[in-house]
Amino acid sequence: MAIRHYWSMAAAAVGFRLVLVLFGGDLHLASRPEVSTPLTSIRRRSMYHGSPLLLSVLGPLTNKSLIFVAVDFIAAMLIRATGRKLQIARNRSLKSLDLTEAVSNSVNVSAGDIASLIYLWNPWAIVTCVGSCTSPVENLMVVIIIYGACSRLAPLAAFGYVMATHLSLYPAILIVPIILLLGYGPDTPPTKVFRLKNSNASKTDVSYDEKSSSSRDVRQFSWKPVLHFTLWLLFWSSYVLLLSSIILNKVGGLQEMFKKYFFAEVFDFFRSFFLIVFNMNIIFMVLPLAIRLKHRPCFLAFVYTGIVAMLKSYPSVGDSALYLGLLGLFANELAEMHFTFFLFFGYIGVSLLSPVMHNLWIWRGTGNANFYFATGLAYTCLQTVLVIESSILHLNSLNRGFLYWGLVGPGPSIPLPRYHY
Amino acid sequence: MASSATEEAKPKPRLIVRLGVFLASHHILFSAICCTAGVIALLFLPALAKNTYLSENALIPGSANTLFSTEDVLEANRFAKGIEAATGESRGGTEIPKFIAQQMKNLGAEVYYHEFLPDSKCFHPLKFFTSMTNNMAVKPNGTYTNFGINTIGIIRAPRGDGKEAIVLVTPYNSQRVQPNELLSLSLGFSVFSLLSRVAWLSKDIVWLSADSQFGEYTAVSAWLNQYHNPMFLSHPVTLATKMYGANRIIYKPDGTTEKAELMAFKRAGTVAAALIFKVGETRKYGDRDSVTMYAEASNGQMPNLDLLNVVHYLAVHRQGFRVNIETFSSLLTSSWLKVIAEVFHNIGTVLRKVNPDWKLDVTVPDYVEGTANLASSIYNQALGIPTGSHGAFRDYQVDAVSLEFGPAFHLRNENAKSSFLLRGGRLTEGVVISINNLLEKFHQSFFLYMLTAPSKFISVGVYMIPFALLLAPLPIVAAALAGSSKTKGKLLDECKTKGSADDLQIECGSWKWLKSARVLLVIQFWAVLVSLLPYYISQIPGAMPIQYAVIWAVLSIAILIILYAMFGSPFHAGVEWKLLKATMITTITLGMGLMSIINFATAQLGALILIPMCLFSRPLREQLEMTFLPRTILLVSSILLTLLGFPPVAFLIMNGLSKGSWTVDIVGDFWLWMEFLWEWSSATYLYVFLVHLPCWLLCIHVLLHPCHQPESKMKQE
């Protein structure tokens, strides 16, 4: 079911961005530390720390924000397309379970539309777009990865992956959901469900042929697209390296770029310590989450981007804009989320509190860095609550879905995991 | 098996959850208790004030013998005679800077002039969030015949490295020098001449004789702006900005090199502290000379308390001045305050009998005086407008205080004047010695405090208790309202609702608040537009304030109607009033929390008005169904509080209470007051229009809510 006035709302969002780009010069968004971090800022070109490729593309342009408006729009459209793909995949898997009734019964809002509108109208996405920093491009690359993997376009996914890791390195962990998406497809009910269905069917004396036909529907992990992806990955990465080496020839070649990549993000002292603490936290969560959420690789990708936004060095609101946009893809599953009121106003409060604390620290001098840091903590807490709540609800909705569809009977033989907090 | 077992034996929720549920179920009682406690705690504040003490050991005020002697007094008199002679020759006001510059040059100081233009009225309430460097965006262009000239002298410290400086400021009107201004100039000069001779200086001394013909704040802030933001004007701009007469008067016709030297802007190091001193009019004869300290800077910022402590200690214990702070004199004689003081005194004595350590039994006069001072302190901080030119320093994180000497003698009385100059000079010198001792910026003592007497203060830890008590029930009430509407909602749409696509999300369970959030967003958007309107309205030339205000009001109402036509009126949207109220209360919590960080005093005063108003708000239609007594009480109080909460009415009452006079022209005065706030870029303006006004409008929506809607919906289904 599509959303009424979708296109007019999307156009209004783009128009609003354009108005801000053209007339919002007094807002000085590019100088806000929440919007453009040292890693994403292109305002200070003498101290640009981002990708050399991006600089050579964006550098000659006078009004860079116009490009970012286009980039944001493309990202939103890709999110919408991803939502469509997910829905089709879901309906197909329901059909393969002979649940056509469930398909027609379930009132599905078009999640892709919602997600893309959330992305377009998210004030943070707007602010990052207008504040001329490279986060919209990074976000676009991540969205390209997810879209490419969902629609099983290995070259596109590989391109997105290479570019995203080239731009900021953190999306590297998205390799797990990509492989799952390419291998299993966007929506794969666990094999347990098929086995159950078969056992249910055998109770009601269904012939052997039907059983075997439905068990054939159980999707196996297919290695072909993954191999495809790997080949394209190699191709794109060598291409990007080549381009970078050509561009960086003047300033010391590729070695400079790698030095910058691994060491520009932390202080001089305790460099290794910080590297481990910052990045291990993210890496620790990759495997357990992959095991638990392997049936929903897209949701896994959302959780990863959320965790990266929480734990990365130099976080900015652009990262949050990305995962909030992806969150919209699961609007149907998350309709009964807890604490939504609290989270909504919490996000508003934190985004207002941050400039006030910054003012208190930098301009008035009556506060200190801890005031600003406390806002960051509150922000991270909110993100944690959001990610945990949505994961719990997603897992519960999966289980409840099976219960509703009559696959997991309330019989005594199957303990049904419920998640409490 | 296992699952059914866990389903039956549901685990007991955690203590904190149970506590929250308990509070939410008794939220009316809880909020009544908290609000009453908050108001009582606010009234208790004068009794909780502590004596000030010096935190920074390096200051050691009064440890050194002051060198300021009768010689310097003679110097001052000579200087005053010189100025009188100079102004006697030619009227016009540019002789004084010339004379001062000559005198300073004779002392061996570096001298220069600083020319500045008067501030034009402009609308910049949002300057709060931007940096100071943006001030430089305003480039002067055109020709000006009217400009001010500051004369600045710098003494390089013999023992310093030139990295820090102390600024002394004496404002005077160069167009017409009053005898008291002459006295303050000569006081400034005598201190400066003494400091040019001493050997112990480790920080440079800057003496700014500020030309206050456009107000002293303008002069000081223009100088500070250029001190901190070097201006690199392009050549055409410099040419275009001609200050007529400057060449004729200040510079000698032949001396071009000297001109360049006198116009070159010179700097000393980081400003460690600044002292603004001026001699006021003689108010009453006979009593001791007094010093009034002004400390409130923009948005309720205060200088470090140690600076005030040093001044107070030296003035009272060394030089025998009487130190005052600003006060609401109308409160000093009010009888109801005396009654409250009696009550608190009695409570205090009882408490003291219970525990002798609780020293809460302030005497009645002390309480009344403390309350009057505290009220003035809160009022000045809440306005967010600096009380003097020290405010300009605070914008650059420099601690500064204004001292207004109140002589108790006639200014022609030479003997009394000499004695006054001697003590005033010693006080200034003593403060300079103390600041000179500092090794770091002022940081030891409080920045967030309110004064109840020159030597008594209430620190942030104490004065936030009443505010916290007022704010505490809000999250509980919001949770209770949202929770109750959720349980009701579950009963309603237990069955699957099928609606249009975007309604579906809103109908089901936990996303129901989205509708009320939409109402809130529309109203906030309206509030932003209303707060920006004056920028355009004030462009209309030559209208009376009342006309401006009426245009403003009409446009605001028109915009509201248009927005409702575009996005749907909340009355037809079918928003449950409980959710609307929960949203309103959450907004207030956020707004008040933010405002308490930006300007605590504004948040405190706003909380007193806004929080009872929104807690009392219930739909009138629902109130009518109650029994007589609670109905009347609720009706009267909610209508009265809503009326009080309307910004112009609130302004009228504040104004009446602070000045003791009740004006008739509320509308015009409200416009003038708002103009005043945005010109000074006070955050209070933002508070009034982005927090107070939307909450008031939401409150009106709750009051007028047609609350029969859910039932009719149920019938339909």
TrEMBL record, chain A:
<comment type="similarity">
    <text>Belongs to the PIGU family.</text>
</comment>
<dbReference type="GO" id="GO:0006506">
    <property type="term" value="P:GPI anchor biosynthetic process"/>
</dbReference>
<feature type="transmembrane region" description="Helical">
    <location>
        <begin position="337"/>
        <end position="357"/>
    </location>
</feature>
<protein>
    <recommendedName>
        <fullName>GPI transamidase subunit PIG-U</fullName>
    </recommendedName>
</protein>
<keyword id="KW-1133">Transmembrane helix</keyword>
<keyword id="KW-0256">Endoplasmic reticulum</keyword>
<dbReference type="GO" id="GO:0042765">
    <property type="term" value="C:GPI-anchor transamidase complex"/>
</dbReference>
<keyword id="KW-0472">Membrane</keyword>
<feature type="transmembrane region" description="Helical">
    <location>
        <begin position="226"/>
        <end position="249"/>
    </location>
</feature>
<dbReference type="Pfam" id="PF06728">
    <property type="entry name" value="PIG-U"/>
</dbReference>
<dbReference type="GO" id="GO:0016255">
    <property type="term" value="P:attachment of GPI anchor to protein"/>
</dbReference>
<dbReference type="InterPro" id="IPR009600">
    <property type="entry name" value="PIG-U"/>
</dbReference>
<keyword id="KW-0812">Transmembrane</keyword>
<feature type="transmembrane region" description="Helical">
    <location>
        <begin position="369"/>
        <end position="388"/>
    </location>
</feature>
<feature type="transmembrane region" description="Helical">
    <location>
        <begin position="269"/>
        <end position="291"/>
    </location>
</feature>
<keyword id="KW-0337">GPI-anchor biosynthesis</keyword>
<comment type="pathway">
    <text>Glycolipid biosynthesis; glycosylphosphatidylinositol-anchor biosynthesis.</text>
</comment>
<feature type="transmembrane region" description="Helical">
    <location>
        <begin position="168"/>
        <end position="185"/>
    </location>
</feature>
<feature type="transmembrane region" description="Helical">
    <location>
        <begin position="298"/>
        <end position="317"/>
    </location>
</feature>
From TrEMBL, chain B:
<feature type="transmembrane region" description="Helical">
    <location>
        <begin position="519"/>
        <end position="537"/>
    </location>
</feature>
<keyword id="KW-0472">Membrane</keyword>
<feature type="transmembrane region" description="Helical">
    <location>
        <begin position="632"/>
        <end position="654"/>
    </location>
</feature>
<dbReference type="GO" id="GO:0016255">
    <property type="term" value="P:attachment of GPI anchor to protein"/>
</dbReference>
<protein>
    <recommendedName>
        <fullName>Glycosylphosphatidylinositol anchor attachment 1 protein</fullName>
    </recommendedName>
</protein>
<dbReference type="InterPro" id="IPR007246">
    <property type="entry name" value="Gaa1"/>
</dbReference>
<feature type="transmembrane region" description="Helical">
    <location>
        <begin position="21"/>
        <end position="45"/>
    </location>
</feature>
<feature type="transmembrane region" description="Helical">
    <location>
        <begin position="684"/>
        <end position="704"/>
    </location>
</feature>
<dbReference type="Pfam" id="PF04114">
    <property type="entry name" value="Gaa1"/>
</dbReference>
<feature type="transmembrane region" description="Helical">
    <location>
        <begin position="460"/>
        <end position="482"/>
    </location>
</feature>
<keyword id="KW-1133">Transmembrane helix</keyword>
<feature type="transmembrane region" description="Helical">
    <location>
        <begin position="549"/>
        <end position="567"/>
    </location>
</feature>
<keyword id="KW-0812">Transmembrane</keyword>
<dbReference type="GO" id="GO:0042765">
    <property type="term" value="C:GPI-anchor transamidase complex"/>
</dbReference>
